[in-house]
Structure formats: structure tokens, C-alpha cells
Write a structure and sequence with these properties.
9-stranded parallel sheet, Rossmann fold, 559 residues
């Protein structure tokens, strides 16, 4: 850099400012006043992450620290190397401690997210521009704030799901590992040619004739709820995907009868899912949260030589199925029935269990009551009008008004993120619904694409490999070692809480961190790093309950 272009600290009538690229980055009169006022106006609530763009001379940071609520932190970021060097040289001693204040020189949102995770867990993001340095890279900083805010929102949405479903997920994982010798998972097969990813939304009905005509030249991956609709049209999927931890979705497999079908279910799925259909079983392992327990479960699968596909937490079985299909498909993907919206009085395609159950209750005096109650709930509302060119407003082409809710719209946004990642191209052939980040095509274009692709063999996708023959004995040994290890940890933690152990507090903290599934359902799970007495009072019965649950699983596995 030309020395004349380097930032310089200059004296002004009201204090020090910074001159860079022909302009002052603080006011020429009282340069610290505006940053201090901005810091004093920040949200003082607890667990706020304050993103500070271009801190420069650190004006306003002491005031921000004095105002921040409990559990809050400030993450300062500088994208310009020259300004980052200046900020490091002028940081007040002891200010950047890595606990409440951290400084990062980066233009990468990913690095920013990692730095934020090291500072702690936060409920909300605040954005502060305490210098004119922010304006030099304003779009980047705003994008960083947007992505970090989305990550915090997503983490809390996942946290809420963990509170409600965490115990069930952990219980299913334990039971499925104990049943691993019988599940006998196989490697996921590569899918040749174009692949249809089918959800159970009402738009699937319009695609059924296309799928039936072109089934010989098309791979089909179906969400479990869409299975009945597809089978009723004579379409048997190559793979049925299940993510449901509860028993509700077992009715999805009723139309199969005794016919075998390939199933891809998650390790956290209800154990009966693996017994409901006949046919080969394939296994995924969703990273529900950052967890030592889940890492040990994955290690158990590896020790058992059980083929499985690691997956991110995507929430929706439709998004999960699309991600899985992109890992094993050799051609483009076509989205059908992944609507993330519904019609008033009709939430699923015909042939799906909820529609069939409603049909059985119909009479002269009772008409679609549950469907209307579901689709017109307080949480739902008209689908926002799309601004995308060519999108026919809130309606499908010539169809009824469409409705959605915040959860479904968040799943559509997740699918859009998935579509932007490297891998087979995803095409939106639904003809309706919120954007999923894929190019929209009509059914005629989709059919031409399928016929052009065929099911020609292509190179295998990375990570899809053959495994040796299944060894139930090895799986049983791996599952037994996993369960014995979990029981030993619980016994040690229980003895500490009952005062029967010589283990110190550090050992207890380590054990509690390793057994994180015990408090997945706690609203204050982040307090496990402190183990206050009220937390221990709730942890003790959980430890006792899980010891009995794991003991039953171990006895069911046998010697």
C-alpha cells in the first residue's frame, strides 16, 4: 500500500480521528460523541450479541460494555486489513478479552459465525456502526449482520425444538442403536438420471400423470407422507425418506401392505419405522445439535461398520429428502409436492393419510372439518405475494388462494439454501408456493428434461461406496460398548450428585457436559457449565430415569 493511502490518526478540535482515503472516519468535531451515543442507545437485554463494524479507535466500546446485559458480548469485525491493523494498535489494554469483547479481521461470514459461537449462546443480534469505516464495506457488514442474525434465530428455533423433542430423539437413538443388528443398514445406492423429489403437498396431484408415464426413466425419492398418493397412481418410489421421531407417520406405510420398499430413516426416527416396511434399510444421522452424545452415537455406527449418511439438521422431511437426494443422484432434481403452503380445506395431496382419514369421516352433515381447522389455524395466513417475475400471485395457476405459516416458510428458505450449495441442480416443478431458490419450470419442460436424461449410468457420487457384508455380531458388540459407556457415565454423575463420590467439581462438570442429552429439554440448558443447585435438583431425577432406560436397552441387546 502506498504510505499516502494508509490510514492516519489525526488531531481534531475535539479529539483524535482517522483519515483514510481522502476522508475522516469520525467527526471533525468531538469524534467520540456520536459513537458513545450510539453505544448508550443499544439494547441492554440479556444474551445480546452486539456486532460492531469497524471499531477503529474503539470509541463507544466502554459505554457499550457498561450497558450490556447479562450474558451479552460484543463482536468487533474489520474487513479492511489496514484499518484492522490500526484497530489492533489502538485497542485499550484489557478491552479485547475474548470473553465479552472479541476482535476479528475477516470478510468471511463463516469465520464471523465461528467467532460468535466461541463467545457464547445469544438470543438476539444488535448491529452497531461506531465509525465511518463501516461505510467503506457497508454491503458486506450488512450481509454479515443478516447472516449472523439468521444463525441466531435458527439456533433458537432449533433450541425450542430440542426442548420439546429432545428426550424423544435421544430415546429413539438409544433404542435404534440397541436394535442395530436387526436393522442391518445398507449403503445408499446412487440414483441414475433425473430424480423426482416428492413431497405430500397438494401440487403433487398435478405431477402424478407425468411421474407415471416416465417412471421407467426417472428416479423417485419420496417423503413418507407422499407414499400413499404415489402408490395409488402406480408409482413405487426408489427410496422413501422418513425423519419422524413420533409414531404418527407409521400410517404412511399402510398402503404398502407386504410389498418391500427401500427406506431411508434417520437414527432419531421412531424405532417402529424400521419395522413397518419390508425391504432394505438405509440410515442417516442428523446432527441435531452440537453434542458429545451424538458424536459417540456416530462413533458407535462406525465401530459397527454400519453405513450411514451424516446430515445437517433441516427440520422438514421435504428439505431432508432433497438434501439426501442431492448426495446420491447423478442427474438433476425435480421438486414436486414440496409446497410449504396449502389450500383452505386441503393440506395434502389425495391419497395421503390425513386426507384418507378425513374422507372416512365424511357424511351429509360433516364436511372436511379437520382439514379446514388445520389450514385455517391462527398461525396460518395468505401466502405473501411473490415479487418474482412470472409468479401468479398468491394463487396457483387458475387455482385457489394459497396459505402458509412461519414454520413452513422457514423450511422453504432452508430448501433455498440447500439449492444454492454445490451438487445436482434443483428445479422447481411445483407450479405454486413460496420460492425454494430453484428455477421454475412447467410440467412439459420437466417431462422433456426427464426424457432427455434417461437413467443412464454416470460416475458415482463422492462418499457413496460399497461396504462389506453386514456383521450382526460386530454391530451387537459396538452397541453394547456404547450402552455400557453411557451407563458408566450416568452412574458416576449420579454418585456425585448423591454425595457418594470423591470426584471433584471439575469432574462433575465434565460428566455433565458429556451427558448433554440429560438436559436437552431444559429451558436453561446453557447453565450446565455452572451446575447450580436448582439445576442439579432437576438433573438428578433425569439421570435416574435415563439409567433405567439405558439399562432396559442393554438387557434387550443381550450379552
Amino acid at each position: 500500500m502506498d504510505p499516502s493511502e494508509a490510514p492516519a490518526v489525526v488531531q481534531t478540535p475535539g479529539g483524535l480521528s482517522v483519515s483514510y482515503r481522502g476522508r475522516l472516519l469520525y467527526s471533525g468535531r468531538e469524534p467520540g460523541r456520536t459513537p458513545r451515543r450510539a453505544a448508550e442507545a443499544c439494547d441492554p437485554g440479556p444474551r445480546r450479541l452486539h456486532l460492531v463494524a469497524s471499531p477503529l479507535l474503539w470509541y463507544g466500546l466502554p459505554e457499550l460494555l457498561a450497558r450490556m446485559g447479562e450474558g451479552s458480548a460484543a463482536l468487533c469485525v474489520e474487513a479492511d486489513p489496514a484499518l484492522a491493523d490500526l484497530a489492533r494498535r489502538h485497542a485499550p489494554p484489557g478491552l479485547v478479552d475474548g470473553r465479552r469483547v472479541a476482535f476479528l479481521e475477516s470478510s468471511s461470514p463463516e469465520e464471523l459465525a465461528e467467532a460468535a459461537s466461541r463467545l457464547g449462546s445469544f438470543r438476539k443480534l444488535g448491529f452497531l456502526a461506531l465509525s465511518g469505516g463501516e461505510s467503506l464495506n457497508a454491503p458486506l457488514y450488512r450481509r454479515m449482520a443478516e447472516l449472523l442474525g439468521e444463525e441466531i434465530e435458527r439456533s433458537w428455533r432449533n433450541r425450542a425444538s430440542l426442548m420439546v423433542m429432545g428426550r424423544l430423539w435421544a430415546r429413539n437413538i438409544v433404542d435404534n442403536l440397541a436394535a442395530l443388528p436387526d436393522i442391518a443398514p445398507r449403503p445408499l445406492p446412487p440414483l441414475p438420471g433425473a430424480t423426482a423429489v416428492c413431497g405430500a403437498g397438494p401440487s403433487l396431484e398435478a405431477a402424478l400423470p407425468l411421474l407415471a408415464r416416465n417412471r421407467p426413466s426417472l428416479s423417485v425419492v419420496a417423503c413418507d407422507t407422499a407414499l400413499g398418493s404415489l402408490l395409488a397412481s402406480g408409482i413405487e418410489p426408489d427410496l422413501v425418506v422418513c425423519l419422524e421421531a413420533q409414531a404418527h407417520n407409521l400410517a404412511d406405510f399402510t398402503p404398502l401392505g407386504s410389498r418391500p420398499i427401500a427406506l431411508a430413516a434417520d437414527l432419531s426416527s421412531h424405532p417402529a419405522t424400521f419395522r413397518a416396511p419390508r425391504g432394505p434399510k438405509h440410515l442417516s444421522a442428523v446432527r441435531i445439535t452440537a453434542s458429545p452424545f451424538l458424536e459417540r452415537a456416530s462413533s458407535c455406527l462406525e465401530a459397527a461398520a454400519a453405513p450411514f449418511l451424516p446430515m445437517p439438521a433441516l427440520g422438514s422431511v421435504g428439505v431432508h429428502a432433497a438434501h439426501l437426494a442431492r448426495q446420491i443422484s447423478r442427474g438433476p432434481l425435480l421438486a414436486f409436492g414440496l409446497d410449504f403452503c396449502f389450500e383452505a380445506g386441503k393440506t395434502h395431496a389425495r391419497g395421503c393419510p390425513s386426507i384418507l382419514a378425513e374422507e372416512r369421516r365424511l357424511s351429509r352433515l360433516r364436511r372436511w372439518g379437520s382439514q379446514y381447522a388445520s389450514s385455517l389455524s391462527e398461525r396460518s395466513g395468505p401466502l405473501p405475494v411473490s415479487r418474482d417475475p412470472g409468479r401468479p400471485g398468491r394463487r396457483g395457476p387458475g387455482g385457489p388462494e394459497l396459505r402458509s405459516d412461519p414454520v413452513l416458510l422457514s423450511y422453504a428458505a432452508l430448501l433455498a439454501q440447500e439449492a444454492s450449495l454445490p451438487g445436482p441442480v434443483l428445479y422447481d416443478a411445483r407450479g405454486r408456493g413460496p420460492s425454494i431458490g430453484a428455477r421454475r419450470i412447467g410440467l412439459e419442460e420437466a417431462e422433456a428434461m426427464v426424457r432427455g436424461q434417461g437413467r443412464a449410468a454416470g460416475p458415482p457420487r463422492p462418499g457413496i461406496e460399497s461396504r462389506p457384508a453386514w456383521e450382526p455380531g460386530r454391530a451387537r458388540e459396538a452397541a453394547a460398548a456404547f450402552l455400557d459407556g453411557e451407563l458408566a457415565r450416568l452412574d458416576a454423575l449420579y454418585d456425585f450428585m448423591k454425595g457418594r463420590s470423591a470426584a471433584g467439581r471439575e469432574e462433575a462438570l465434565r460428566l455433565a457436559a458429556e451427558c448433554d442429552y440429560l438436559y436437552w429439554g431444559f429451558a436453561d440448558a446453557d447453565r450446565a457449565g455452572e451446575l447450580p443447585q436448582d439445576f442439579l435438583n432437576r438433573l438428578l431425577p433425569e439421570t435416574d430415569w435415563w439409567a433405567r432406560r439405558l439399562g432396559r436397552a442393554r438387557r434387550a441387546l443381550g450379552a
